[in-house]
Amino acid sequence: MSEKDSASTIKPQIKQILAHLSKKPGVYQMLDKEGETLYVGKAKNLSNRVKSYFTKQHQSPKTELLVTYIEDIHTTVTETETEALLLENNLIKKYKPRFNVIFRDDKSYPFVFLSSGDYPRLAYHRGAKKEKGDYFGPFPSTSAVRQSLSLMQKVFQIRQCEDSYFANRSRPCLQYQIKRCTAPCVNYISKEDYAKDVENIRLFYRGKSDQVISRLQKKMDKASENLEFELAARYRDQIKQMRHVMQQQVISGTASDLDMVGVAYASGTCCILLVFIRNGMIVGNKTYYPKVPKHSDLDEIISSFLTFYYLSGAEVPKQVFLEKMPEDSKAISEALSQHKQSKVSLKVASRGQTKEWQEFANKNAQHSLRAKLNSKSNFTKRLLELQKALQLESMPKHVECFDISHTQGNQTVGSCVVFDENGPKKSDYRIFNISGVEPGDDYAAMEQVLTRRYKRLKDEEKSLPDLVIVDGGKGQLAKAEDVFNQLDITNVPLIGVSKGSDRKVGMEQIWFPGQHRPLLLDEDSKALHFIQHIRDESHRFAITKHRHQRKKSGTKSLLEEIPGVGAKRRQSLLRHFGGWQEIEKASAKDIAKAPGISLSIAQKIYDYLHS
Length: 611
Fold this sequence. Notes:
Largest sheet: 7 strands, mixed
Shape: globular
Distance between the termini: 49 Å
């Protein structure tokens, strides 16, 4: 449709509005015939932006649908794009328009509180900061604070009881008996020694864990020299616990406050996971599942999250790291800086430690999304939609999906994943090691997997699935048909799933036996979401098992094969970590802590073990 044709279909009242729009920055509200707000947006140039909804070719399906409902447009002119962004955020929270990405609001965040006085207490705090003392945080959740307090009790044994309870004790409580408190209430520890433990806690929460460990090591050495072995053992245990925490939480080389934003989007569901790093230490993470209108792009979702979250009362750090920068990142950065009253930078984590933590955030977002998709409430609706879309006689309660994985044709494996009405049934997952086929021949590999799977089920007289899905197009489906014909399986529906010509998610093609044209489901179809989910799970399972096979076949000489790792370094690694499994679990930074291992060598070892 040309711009002229498009303009001729615009409603008369909308034409009148478009003719008198300002070219200044501002906010626009799209309204329906009842006066309800459908969508709120911001613009550098209101006239150009609003007109683009009605004249621009190749609009997204979301925009096309929105335009059909628009009966009125309200605009508010602002002086700057930053002001527009702030107003947009407030209006979205007020009206919750159905075509905007909507997040649930969170107002209050918990802190760790260290009181003032001769014997300070360490406690959980939420709300106004009225008491004198130090507040560390904010933490993303109550559980994160409780976990942190438990750690401090074990390491430094600082009291957590209320002041009224503390003042009226005549003998130690149970916390002293289980070595969670040094009993300052009955003077079992001097003010000076207690103050040292308190100072260590302050250093820990300010990201100076190395200083704490250095102090503890000196005390341990001194206690050993004085033959105070029980005290030395206590310091040794504290050091061990601190090292364990640092290995999991500390980012080397930075004491900055920053947040990492991880995003995962699949099967019509979005997960945003925020990792909080304060004073160089992870204090937890928080997960959001926004209500995303269909056809929303990732850029809009990220932009909406940043404005919603940081302008809703959350602490704004100096830096926010993202995998991809949204188009309006400059305006968002200015708005957050104005809100914080100091500079806030949006950055893409492109290398080094921040990239590792960006990958950590993304992986956890994907894990959380998978858990969300696997929830029971989603599955019945999706299976019913699947029955309708595929025109099945009944709702499929047992679905199996197959995928093939290999490395340049070698070590080929096939996966079978099973979903029932409750979601993935992992106890029924199966992996097949492929042999006797030409390297890279996925058709023959698929034929072998299906033959082995269903010949065995028939021989053992076990029930067959209600639906079988193969990952692939007409070629894989034809092989599956041959197997079913050879085994005389006639009552099990069979489909193939391919990604289409441009391989975009949401454009999957569903192939049926004997048909030359695929079925294309709507991008927001629950049936398509189910097919995407089980296909992705079969692919994940195949890849995971395939990597395991590669590692298993090379464990006898893995370290020996790494360039730059000789006998001395292998010995150093094994002595430092105590065994092969611990080396495999360690990060590159942790590997570099072994004597004689530089960071560059550590990175080579890590990359090799995780390739």
